[in-house]
Design a protein that fits this description.
The longest helix has 11 residues. By secondary structure, the protein is of the alpha+beta class. The chain has a single domain, classed as 2-Layer Sandwich (Alpha-Beta Plaits). Helices cover 46% and strands 17% of the residues. Strands 2-3-1-4 form a 4-stranded antiparallel sheet.
């Protein structure tokens, strides 16, 4: 294994996670598998910030349509989020596996969404609301790099050796 296997990924604890008081519990799941926090902050971005995140980087309108994009933005501005950069061996894939699929109803027990949320796309669509799925996780390493640059400056990210790195790297 070389350092190209070490990745950084963006995780957003969405407003529903912050408001339900689940941040610490969910964060501990990331830390237990060896993900290292290299940047973190709480903020309440405006719709322009989310537009860049979800459309300019994530191409959400292109993939899911204007309606899905609108309800997602409305849900994201309901309160503050906690943004983090996590680092580990193959971090992007690891975080995605821990979080589970985007639709909570489809998420298996044992995943974050499977354990802490339950709503289906159908129900959310019928109510014209964003689906409260707790976490945003970067989809691939390229997207992660763009998202991290959007949310954090280089000076806000830290390099240090965590104790578990002695055993995993």
């Amino acid at each position: 294994m070389d350092n190209t296997d070490i990745q950084k990924t963006l995780v957003l604890f969405k407003p529903d996670t912050v408001q339900r008081g689940l941040v610490g519990e969910i964060l501990s799941r990331f830390e237990r598998v060896g993900l290292k926090i290299v940047a973190t902050k709480m903020l309440a971005p405006d719709k322009d910030h989310y537009y860049k995140h979800y459309e300019e980087i994530g191409k959400m309108i292109t993939r899911r349509g204007e309606k899905a994009f609108g309800v997602t933005l409305d849900a994201m501005v309901q309160g503050p989020v906690i943004a983090m950069v996590l680092e580990a061996v193959e971090a992007v894939e690891l975080v995605r596996k821990l979080v589970g699929p985007t639709e909570p109803k489809s998420a298996a027990p044992g995943t974050i969404r499977g354990d802490y949320s339950h709503m289906s796309f159908g129900y959310a669509d019928s109510q014209v609301k964003g689906i409260p799925n707790l976490i945003h996780a970067s989809g691939d390493p390229e997207e992660a790099a763009q998202e991290i640059a959007h949310w954090f400056t280089e000076d806000e990210q830290y390099e240090y050796q965590a104790l578990n790195e002695k055993f995993t790297r």
